[in-house]
Amino acid sequence: SDQGDMTDSLRGIHIRDARFQDSFREYTRHTHNDRWPEDHPDEWARGRPKDGAFLLSTDGYRVKCSAKLLGLTAPVRWEGVGTKHEAALACAWAIPGASVFVKSDSGSLHFVQKRETTLHVYQVDGDGFT
What we know:
Layout: H1 5-9, H2 18-28, E1 53-56, E2 62-67, H3 83-94, E3 99-103, E4 109-115, E5 118-125, E6 128-129
Antiparallel strand pairs: 1-2, 3-4, 4-5, 5-6
């Protein structure tokens, strides 16, 4: 968590806005230490971890950014992945109507969604879902 600074910086900015897209792209860009650079233009970001979830409303605005999701569990395990992917499963399971994207450090992107009593995981590539 970044104490709400990322949430504040994206207040009122729609996900289709280039400012949101640029911030999100920079936030998810993998670095050697997964932290914002010390010379980042936004003083609040300097040296802080790039960690946590982005929670978005159905109308395309941020609810919370860089949020810690704690205490959620899913009824299944996602073998061969790390805690970020496990948290995505748990979030999709526990939050009604949630649609979750999770990106691994290797660059692969997955979409997770609960339909009725089943979790569905899809790999997303340049052409869409597979």
